[in-house]
Specification:
InterPro entries: Metallo-B-lactamas, RibonucZ/Hydroxyglut_hydro. This protein is of the alpha/beta class. The protein has 8 helices and 14 strands. The chain has a 7-stranded mixed β-sheet with strand order 6-5-4-3-2-1-14. A 7-stranded mixed β-sheet has the order 7-8-9-10-11-12-13. The chain is globular and about 55 Å long.
Length: 255
């Protein structure tokens, strides 16, 4: 099983508009960050996409991805779903819509905002058949576990995908660690964690909280994502334990 990190940046990306790199070295390619999405792929070539970032088209092109078998959404904030239209080429050649999954609250808001995606319109077919995560334990050949995480005034969904005894967890956009998060993500071979900045934030994990999640879950590898312009790649890499990886666009890791 393989993790492909399509995007690793916060909601404004790095650099911010205005060519604002903050503390990030513009000469380090791994500091150029698009908005967060990942793909998990197994040895049979089945792919699950988590989140449809506004940069999804360029991410799929950069990573030579022309097909996915299912889509999961963590929540409906713009930086996690506003690239949803770029799923349209994934529908070409299919006899049915792509299967998609989200929590009941997220699914309700996605359908209200993007009804044409889930119901078709003006002769265009439905792109995604969106279901809630209730009682879903298998997606595109992967075992699936999930839980809700606190994200300020709303929730974001954490996922754990399993295949052939290996697991990859994804926990982005959380500001506290709950027992259910530890239970779902425990022992992950790879755990991707929210890590906005070093200082605490009211809706996101900071560096110490991300590292704490890695310790509490005993993840074998912890990958940091959703990084803002204060998180220079080389500087951050020098500060973290050996089993922790600074995520970057295009990163691939085998579980």
């Amino acid at each position: 099983m393989k993790l492909i990190m399509l995007g690793s940046g916060t909601s404004t990306g790095v650099p911010r508009i205005g060519n604002d790199w903050g503390d990030c070295d513009p000469n380090e390619p791994r500091n150029r960050r698009t908005r967060v999405s990942i793909i998990v792929e197994n040895s049979l070539g089945k792919r699950v996409l988590i989140d449809t970032s506004p940069d999804l088209r360029q991410q799929l092109l950069a990573n030579d991805i022309d097909r996915v078998d299912a889509v999961l959404w963590t929540h409906d904030h713009a930086d996690h779903c506003h690239g949803i239209d770029d799923l349209r080429p994934m529908r070409y050649g299919r006899s049915n819509a792509l299967p998609g999954y989200a929590s009941a609250a997220t699914a309700k808001r996605l359908k209200a905002r993007f009804n044409y995606i889930f119901a078709g319109q003006y002769g265009y077919p439905t792109l995604v058949d969106l279901s809630t995560l209730d009682n879903v334990r298998l997606v595109a050949g992967f075992g699936l576990a999930h839980c809700e995480m606190p994200h300020g005034g709303m929730d974001s969904t954490a996922f754990l995908l399993e295949y052939d005894g290996k697991t990859i967890g994804y926990a982005t956009d959380f500001n506290a660690i709950t027992p259910s998060m530890v239970d779902v993500l425990k022992g992950a071979d790879i755990l991707v964690s929210d890590c906005l900045r070093r200082d605490p934030h009211p809706t996101h994990a900071h560096l110490d909280l991300a590292l704490e999640l890695g310790r509490k879950t005993r993840a074998k590898k912890l990958v940091l994502t959703h990084l803002d312009k204060s998180m220079d790649y080389a500087t951050l890499k020098s500060e973290i334990p050996k089993n922790v990886i600074v995520g970057y666009d295009g990163l691939e890791i085998a579980a």
